[in-house]
Amino acid sequence: MQDALLALTKYWTDRGCIVVQPFNTEVGAGTLNPATVLRVLGPEPWRVAYVEPSVRPDDARYGENPNRLQTHTQFQVILKPDPGDPQELYLGSLEALGIDVRAHDVRFVEDNWASPALGAWGLGWEVWLDGLEITQFTYFQQAGGMTLDPVSVEITYGIERIMMALQGVDHFKKIAYAPGISYGEAFGQAEYEMSRYYLDDADVERNKKLYQEFAGEAQRMIDARLPVPAHSFVLKCSHLFNVLDARGAISTTERARAFARMRGLARGVAQLWAERREELGHPLGVAEVPALAPVPSSFEDVVAPSTLLFEIGTEELPPHEVLRTVDAVRDAVTSKLGATRLTFGAVTVHGTPRRIVVVVPAVSPREPDAERTVRGPRVSAAFDADGNPTKAVQGFARGQGVDVSALGRVVENDVEFVALTKTDAGRGAVEVLSGLLAEVVSDLRAEKNMKWNDPKLSFTRPVRWLLALLGSTPVPVSVSSLASGTVTRVHRTASSPVVEVSTADGYPEFLASHGIQVDATARAASIVEAAQALAASVGGVVEVDGLLDEVTNLVEWPTPILGSFEERYLELPGQILTTVMRKHQRYLPVRSADGSLLPHFVAVANGEVDVDLVRAGNEAVLRARYEDAAFFWRADLKTPLEEMKSGLAKLTFADKLGSMADRASRIAALAGRFASVVSVDRETLDRAGALAKFDLGSQMVIELSSLAGVMAREYAERAGETPEVALALWEMELPRSAGDALPSSVPGALLSLADRFDLLAGLFGIGAQPTGSSDPFGLRRAALGAVTVLRAFPDLREITLPVALSLASEGLEVSDEARETAREFAVRRYEQALLDAGHEHRFVQAVLPLADSPVLADETLTQLESLAGNESFDALAAALQRVRRIVPADVVASYDASVLTEPAEVALHKAFDGVSRDVAGLAAFVAAAEGLTAPINTFFDEVLVMAEDPAVKAARLGLLASIRDFAAPVLDWTQL
After folding, report:
1. pLDDT value of residue 702
2. 74: Cβ–Cβ under 8 A, 6 or more apart, which residues?
């Protein structure tokens, strides 16, 4: 291993990096060494490489897990500014380590890094070697709360993992560290003892006190204008936070509060460092900004309709951004071409992780000439009585560059104007496309955008090349520092990674000949076909739902590989196994015909690889992850459920809302209050309520938070709880997202509602509602989940939004205003859910006043959609709208019928008096009230509502107000 560190040091120093030493206090990553986190600030260039022992208490495993260590070795590289080819440089460093990048599956998989404690973030990737994360690769965007310019590239190698792959060992302890000395022999004792400390023996209160002391000292050093010692104390705070987190002593709110404090300190350090470097005159100089590409000034002509090929070459895009960018580019190209005078065929856009390819057939060689008329002043104002041109027309002619005698006349709306007919000469297609395609690139945007070494562009990942051809004719495209060419980049590991493209025709086939399937549909089909065949070879079927799009857009040429794991891992709950496979590794599980998991999976590699080598690597990764899960599983099974739940008392939920244990107690009590409104199995509900949220204290859920509820069910069943209680504990967490499964039992539904309404009432009560895109407590998800459960359980209709929020507020300080804000917030989630489901906007708005009872609103919406378009219903709706429009909002719904004497008003009174008031639902209301349509219309045709006699006027308005208020609870008729 020490030889590998020397090899990396030599590789990067040969490329201009200086070497610095590890920092002399605990850091969670090489990023936190001031050689990174401070040096990326400001305009000075900086290239550095160094070894950094990185301490992560949460990764402590007593030395038992083959891949997880509390202290692991990182090799850190900073390239400032971005050199333009950092991925290629990185792959060269792997070869320097002896890794055959052509045989292995080396992939850049999206990872958006952030350190909230340091106010730092960046976009980039995890680098996978046969499924094993070996490197973090990041374009730094911000540090200490300061936006970085220039952007730095950070490359952080996980040395132990790389060495395990190089040496072919299955445990870090077996790594040959030096001749005759293994890693375990050198560091095994320290790994075990520090794991003991972090997981079992660290004193929570003492570490909390130390945290406060170090935070105070950091601030004192900032006040003294000493950024380097201040930074060292911020790092001590960060480490103590991590120790407390490993001990399970940090809640969501404590985390947010600690992050805010450390972020503030880090921002103070960063600003002070930048000021000090500026005061020193930037001793290392200022990084150069790449020059802008020349703007095209000459364009070749084409003589016949030709195919347009435009390729935007990028570094690896996140899979979901491949899909989004394909759609955006298709819309942009179609729209922009449509705004020209060129004719063209259908626009096709393909996407892979490294390229967005536009193909447009039959683009005309040039635009036709176009005539346009420029209108001048009126003829009456253009010439005087003697026919001489006035100053107005002379100015117009001068502005158009012609003599007055060249002007003609046009008539518009019977008015005669002087005018000039001008011919706009058509431009050649290459010239038109040059500017159009440049706009497409400069307009690229994503959900999360970043900067790199380009002075103007911003996108989800760097754009590195442009290819533009019209037939065989180059189209010059200039965007910021990028200029298009006639070459593309294929696999980085190819013998010729950059290849010339001679024509736009047949480009998908050209790429296929270089091992790139540009058509995502074809990639997906080949994955499914090959994976199904591989699964069938072991008597199984592959599970692709929910993962196929992501896997498809992680590769340019899919190579599915069948892998296996030991059958003993099947003793773990299946959802643990599939969560690890799907979420962490992007593997496709293999199941038998009866749906049970088989000890196999399908990994999808990119391009041609050594299949046996890649299979072995992926199997080793999965084995390590399953060992991790088994470690947690065994530890949790030894822990009584009540003991797990007792750990919730250590976790503060939120300021003024107590601990997680307090929140769990509130959920149980609220579910009990709900039970007083509806019929439910109280024994099941009460027992499940007593255990509510206990699995948050389990090691498995602390590590894999997405398994909350899943593990509650599993552990409850194994602890001897009834199946009904175990089910309710699982269903309490449902739904976890839009479209997720819903509770199937009433106890589960009540606990689910109690969970979500406690969250809404409590957090709105303390003013912690979402702001903008920030929703740290998932309140939007909670509100939507509550509404969705209410919609799914008609028998719970008595639990309306106001009732639920009122019951949830008991024992909490929640103002009427906060409760109403929370109610409106939930109504908006319901509204959006209906719109997302495709319901017509006006119908949604019509039923929204009923949304306090989502079941009632749903039933009304169904009836409304059935009645809409019916002549009788439409006539009734129009009549009721007419009533509502004419009656002022403050008119009381009462009247003296004896004052009404006109036949039309008497008829309307009698018709209204005869309508049954005992109706429920829109359909019943319409059946009862449709007899009012004709009398209402006759009333308006024959009666003057605003009579001169005040008593008559009041009676007429009161009659109409009574009809208005009778109809109001049924629907918002004004929206129809």
Report:
1. 85
2. 29, 30, 51, 52, 53, 54, 156, 157, 158, 159
